[in-house]
Amino acid sequence: MTQKALMLAYAVGAYAAALSSLVYIMGFLADFGVWKSICSGPSQSPWLAGLIDVCLIGLFGLQHSITARSSFKRWWTQVIPASIERATYLYMTAAMTALLVLFWQPVAITVWEVRASIGVVSIRIAYLAVWGVMTGATFQFGHFSFFGLTQVWATLRQVPPKPAKFTARYLYALARHPISLCWMVAALVTPHLTVGHVIFAASTFVYIMLATPFEEADLVETLGDTYIEYRKRTRTFLPLPK
Questions:
Q1: Rounded to two decimals, what is the model's pTM?
Q2: Which stretches of the chain drop beneath a pLDDT of 50?
Q3: What angle do CA 120, 121, 122 make, to 5 degrees?
């Protein structure tokens, strides 16, 4: 009983850590409501700050991409129970998010600034909509599975895990990777855009462009012809008809 309780607590903790990280990044990019934002901290050489920030995004992406691959998971689940693999991944991602925030160097050179109240409100609403789409997308293929709770709950109930769930409806009928699209644009949806925001957005864009082919290869391996046919009729990021 103690082991089951610890496993459940571990998964719930991972869920809380993941959601807390997302909420913090939301405030971090908006420069609002957090102890350290994308614009806060001591200023230094913009070139040095930009280099450090690009490396931080690269380090985050490296961890995120390697530990999400099927080949890594097959090895990793020989070390830890498969039921807590996703939860462990979320803990690692939360740690990398904390590292990114802690060492982020501001480059507070203004690219644009909207001061009109209606413009600021409109942009803030659009920003919240981006995060709403990102969150809503997780419910289409299993929100609690995405955040590691379903796997642990199935183990505690001693039922076999369900196969990977494929969806091609709603957001996923428009684009194959709506969450990635949201990550690419989130930093740019701000009334006060700085060079730091541009660095974050550009680095994220490059990472996603490099990582997506590997993610798609995993999806083809898992889903086979179903995903191949889906890929033929649906664009990768832009919600436009083929």
A1: 0.91
A2: none
A3: 90
